[in-house]
Amino acid sequence: MKIYEDRDFFPKPSYPFFIDQYTIRKGEVIPMHSHSFYELVFVVEGHAWHEFRGETRELQEGDVFIVDPRTAHRYRGREDGVTVVYNVMFQLSLLDRELSSLSEIDAFVDFFYLAPFLRRSPHNIPYLNVKGSTRAKLEGKLQTISYEDERKVPGYELMVRSQLVEFFVCLSRYMLENRKEPERERIEEKEWLSWVTALLGEIYNQPISLNQFSRMCAMSPSAFAQKFKQRTGKSFLQYKRELQMSEACRLLRGTDRSIVEVAGESGYDDLSHFYRIFRRQFGCTPLQYRNHQEARPSAAR
């Protein structure tokens, strides 16, 4: 299976973005593949088949969905017509400044974080299908993004980022206006903890709050916090922070990423805050931890 890496689509590391309008031809098979980045798919026209984790769905015009990193999927064109889609590939670092604000919108959290997770669980939810004027508006945003990215005149990166943010805001408003009973309410009591910890284990480095998690579980923040601590013996913040620190240590031990990069990938945009939490947890700075880890093999020898 082909695995696409950042270098295959992002020639400029500081601008991890690629957009393409692709036509899936009659009967064309796009083999199973995955990628190291996020893929936003918008179906302009047609009804190709999309295979995702062992399930096959017939795409509909107006379908919008996220394929998260390292997730295998493939397409198969129908024999009775072509399918036109927008493929938008990007890393979250593209929207570093805007992600915290976007994550305050519940519908964005549902679409970007919760929906991909639920599609991998027994509580499968359909891809979002957008209708009416909103569909036209979203397609217009993608057309503008594609135009700016292709021309690459001064200021194009800022235009791409702003239009992509507007795309997500517009999509989130549509979801709020057309909200249905969330699938998460079907989760049985006995599955609650495994569901929450599994999702938290995937998005611990994103700006998701206890309040947003409690809403996902259809609980009040206080009830969620109490139940979480009863089941895990730790507060939500403590549990999340331990996941973040574990990832920071892994990156410090096994990579040559800078401390700023390690902090960002662990979920800390504020470097001084990252230093304070790390020192409180391990009694040393991240750099001291890395130097100590590097010195251990030579000392053993």
What does this structure look like?
This protein is an alpha+beta fold. The protein has 2 domains: 2-177, Jelly Rolls, CATH 2.60.120.280; 197-301, Orthogonal Bundle (Arc Repressor Mutant, subunit A), CATH 1.10.10.60. Helix content is 50%, strand content 18%. It has helices at residues 6-9, 96-102, 106-119, 132-151, 156-177, 192-203, 210-216, 221-232, 236-254, 259-265, 271-282, 286-300, and strands spanning 2-4, 17-24, 29-35, 38-45, 49-52, 55-58, 63-67, 73-76, 83-90, 128-129. It has a 5-stranded mixed sheet with strand order 1-3-8-5-6. The chain has a 5-stranded antiparallel sheet with strand order 2-9-4-7-10. The longest helix has 22 residues, at 156-177.
Q: Based on CA inertia axes, which overall geometry fits?
A: globular
Q: Work out the strand percent.
A: 15-25%
Q: Indicate the CATH architecture of the largest domain.
A: Sandwich
Reading side by side through the largest sheet, how are the strands ordered? 1-3-8-5-6
Say what the CATH topology of the largest domain is: Jelly Rolls
Structural class, by secondary structure, is: alpha+beta
Order of helices and strands: EHEEEEEEEEHHEHHHHHHHHH
Counted by DSSP, the helix tally is 12
Quickly count the domains.
2
Number of beta strands: 10
User: pLDDT below 50 for ≥5 consecutive residues: which ranges?
Assistant: 117-125, 181-187
Task: Give the mean pLDDT.
Answer: 84
Please identify the top-level CATH class of the largest domain. Answer: Mainly Beta
CATH homologous superfamily classification of the largest domain: Regulatory protein AraC
Rg for CA atoms: 21 Å
